[in-house]
């Protein structure tokens, strides 16, 4: 059984930075792909409109946000990637200190 999570985050409103961010995501580092897959994320997509991003994550039963966060903190290459990405990203007004991607609430599903 899989679950789906949708998250959102903004980029800094700078066309050159946004273009560079997109380039980084055309070929993510192998360590990043591995950490995503090992965490129980089966599929992930990121969409962009202007500087607002929307991420869709399909996860298996082994996935937990807490376990993923702990594994990321312990992985130096993931920390390097996250620090690099933060140079392009901008926290949403609703974010608490240290929060990046925020979980969205589903308010409609056609076949619910």
List the helices and strands and how they pair.
Layout: E1 3-11, H1 15-26, H2 30-38, E2 41-49, E3 52-59, H3 65-73, H4 76-86, E4 89-90, E5 102-103
Antiparallel strand pairs: 1-3, 1-4, 1-5, 2-3
Task: Please characterize this protein's 3D structure.
- The chain has 112 residues and is of the alpha+beta class.
- The protein has a single domain (3-103), classed as 2-Layer Sandwich (Alpha-Beta Plaits).
- It is built from 4 helices and 5 strands, in the order E-H-H-E-E-H-H-E-E.
- The chain has helices at residues 15-26, 30-38, 65-73, 76-86, and strands at residues 3-11, 41-49, 52-59, 89-90, 102-103.
- Strands 1, 2, 3, 4 and 5 form a 5-stranded antiparallel beta sheet that branches.
- It is globular and about 40 Å long.
- Proportion of residues in β-strands: 25-35%
- Percent of residues in helical segments? 25-40%
Element order: H for helix, E for strand: EHHEEHHEE
**Count of DSSP-assigned helices:** 4
Low-confidence spans: pLDDT under 50, at least 5 residues?
none
Note the overall shape. globular
How would you sum up this structure in a few lines?
The protein is an alpha+beta fold and 112 residues long.
Task: List its salient traits.
5-stranded antiparallel beta sheet, 112 residues, alpha+beta, Alpha-Beta Plaits, 4 helices
């Amino acid at each position: 059984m899989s679950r789906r999570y949708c998250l959102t985050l903004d980029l800094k409103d700078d066309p050159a930075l946004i273009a560079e961010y997109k380039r980084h995501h055309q070929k993510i580092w192998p360590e990043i792909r591995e950490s995503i897959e090992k965490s129980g994320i089966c599929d992930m997509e990121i969409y962009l409109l202007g500087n607002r991003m929307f991420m869709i994550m399909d996860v298996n039963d082994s996935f937990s946000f807490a376990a993923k966060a702990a594994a990321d903190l312990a992985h130096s290459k993931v920390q390097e990637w996250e620090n690099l990405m933060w140079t392009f990203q901008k926290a949403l007004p609703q974010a608490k200190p240290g929060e990046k991607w925020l979980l969205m609430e589903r308010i409609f599903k056609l076949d619910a």
